[in-house]
Write a structure and sequence with these properties.
The structure is a single chain. This protein has two domains: about 160 residues, Rossmann fold, CATH 3.40.50.1260; about 200 residues, Rossmann fold, CATH 3.40.50.1260. The chain contains 13 helices and 17 strands. It is elongated and about 70 Å long. Helices cover about 35% and strands about 15% of the residues. The longest helix is centred in the first third of the chain and has 15 residues. Helix 6 runs parallel beside helix 8, helix 6 packs across helix 12 and helix 9 runs parallel beside helix 10. The chain has about 400 residues and is of the alpha/beta class.
Length: about 400
């Protein structure tokens, strides 16, 4: 059920969002997740609902002021152009009193759900207390919907539950990719650990025409082709995983693309890179940290031939300037093709989002940038999402 299906006028709405924002010191580094839920909050406020926002922030072991959601009040109020009130608890008398004083159209934000361990334990009594103050529950936190937590799954046992606009957008855009609507489609998957992306790779190998692998994930595939990867990062005991992905890809006419050439560290501080134009020339002390120009050219040609691209994970150690070119150039190429309407682009994963920001690219230059992270991987992999199942 979706938010458009219910009459929220005069109702108290418990709105679950994801305000788990990157904060350094006392400065919020990125407000994307806040921006994404503004349409839902504005819709509720303009429909004369009383909106009670709940979220988590970080992984507190107890009450921790550095992880208080009070830090979000100022930017949230500015984006909504209305003052949002804050309650320094998420259940109990303070919350009950604040809600009794609310007028239609008012918005309040409650304190960090994870100050109570019962949230992550999916505790029934905690969910009952959360829901007791409201008439309707709306989930607008796709990025948390893979978690079996009290405010995501358990609370729906006590309130009529609906999906907000942000959650709907996430699902609709991801569905367009995995439903094989666009052909050919290319998936670009990078990052450090193949073990965290087994189901993703197997799922994509059944659906896309091209599967481009980069980062340390690609090293595992180079290894089973008997290439020396020197001292590069890889996962032990990942051979069977790699072989299974190759098998599934072959069965589904999906072409796996691995680096043709690579950039290796020339110094221990990763400030200088050296191109190995032939994978046969990789030395025992080499550390592979980026893709080379021949690989970049191949990726460009594939992107030009495709109607859609799904990108998850960097293609190298982009946090080091000497090894950022591969990831940044691919990001720029995808953004450029998206702006000229030559390709539909879906980007997911925190590292991909960080790479986009580091490359100085506007996220609006892509068709859709998911706020999902783990939820993105779960959904594309076809795994059950507790927060979506209950809706």
């Amino acid at each position: 059920m979706i938010i458009q299906d219910c009459n929220v006028s005069g109702k108290i709405v418990l709105l679950r969002v994801d305000f788990n924002l990157p904060i350094v010191g006392s400065t919020i580094q990125d407000l994307t997740r806040v921006l994404r839920v503004i349409p839902t909050i504005n819709y509720l406020a303009s429909s004369n609902a009383k909106t009670v926002i709940i979220s988590h922030l970080g992984h507190p072991k107890d009450r921790d002021d550095s992880l208080s959601l009070q830090q979000v009040i100022e930017p949230l109020s500015e984006l909504l152009n209305r003052q949002v009130s804050f309650v320094d608890d998420c259940i109990g008398d303070k919350v009950n009193t604040a809600i009794k004083l609310m007028m239609p159209g008012d918005v309040i934000l409650l304190e960090n759900l994870r100050f109570y361990p019962e949230e992550e334990l999916n505790d029934v009594d905690f969910a009952k207390k959360l829901s007791s103050v409201a008439d309707i529950y709306i989930n607008d936190a796709f990025s948390c919907s893979h978690r079996n937590h009290a405010s995501i799954a358990q609370v729906t046992k006590f309130l009529p539950a609906y999906a907000g606009f942000c959650l709907q957008d996430e699902v609709n855009h991801l569905e367009e990719i995995i439903s094989c609507k666009y052909k050919p489609t290319v998936a670009i998957v990078g990052g450090a650990k193949i073990s965290t992306k087994i189901n993703l790779l197997l799922s994509l190998a059944k659906k896309v025409e091209f599967l481009i692998l980069g980062g340390a994930i690609a090293n595992n595939f180079l290894l089973i082709q008997s290439f020396n990867i020197g001292k590069s990062l890889y996962e032990k005991d990942a051979e069977n995983i790699s072989l299974e992905v190759i098998k599934v890809a072959a069965q589904n006419n999906c072409k796996i693309i691995l680096p043709q050439d690579i950039l290796v560290a020339k110094d221990v501080n990763y400030k200088l890179g050296l191109i190995r134009g032939d994978l046969s020339f990789i030395l025992d002390n080499d550390v592979i940290l980026d893709i080379g120009p021949k690989t970049l050219d191949e990726i460009r040609q594939i992107l030009l031939s495709c109607e859609a691209v799904l990108w998850n994970g960097p293609l190298g150690a982009f946090e080091y300037p000497a090894f950022s070119n591969g990831t940044f150039q691919v990001a720029r190429e995808i953004a450029s093709l998206t702006k000229t309407k030559e390709i539909k682009s879906i980007v997911g994963g925190g590292d991909s989002l960080s790479a986009i920001h580091a490359a100085g690219i506007n996220i609006e230059d892509f068709t859709y940038v998911s706020t999902g992270g783990g939820a993105f991987l779960q959904y594309i992999s076809g795994n059950e999402m507790p927060g979506l199942s209950v809706l």
